Amino acid sequence: MNIHAVRAELIETVDGLSDTEINQRAVEGVWTIGQVLEHLYLTEIAVAHHAKKALSNEEVQIEPKPISLILDRSKRVQAPAPCEPTTEPKHVQDLLLKLESARTSLLAVYEGAESSQLAKKGFTHPAFGLLDINQWIEFVGFHEQRHLEQIKEIKAHLSV
């Protein structure tokens, strides 16, 4: 999963949307585009924080998990409380800056670390269990792809 390509597509998909459009609810009980973007930012910040902490953990053997299953949008997943978006109105530019900042924080964890070292350190995902740090960065890409599809659906409902 190329997290940079997914992010580029995400930015392209929301490019030109107004604050009004990203705060408009397409379907009752479904997040707005702004809430999806906030969720992505909150998730990525949390992953970066936990990955940085995990670097000081003992090395362990971690089996790869089928994280691509996150792309199956027929299965709804409840976001952990710290990654739940608020109901406050959002501003497109603020969210894009937060997403950029979160990505910088995430990539900083990987700078200077060996992939083999990252494969032996990890932390727990609520659905998949213990993931190594390499799989976490892959997860961020799959997770963003999942929500990119959600944003496209919301846009279609809003006719923007």
TrEMBL record:
Outline the extent of the DinB-like domain: 4-151
Q: Which Pfam families match?
A: DinB_2 (PF12867)
Q: In which domain of life is the source organism classified?
A: Bacteria
Q: Which InterPro entries does the record associate with it?
A: DinB-like (IPR024775), DinB/YfiT-like (IPR034660)
Q: What is this protein called?
A: DinB family protein
Q: What organism is listed for this UniProt entry?
A: Brevibacillus laterosporus (Bacillus laterosporus)
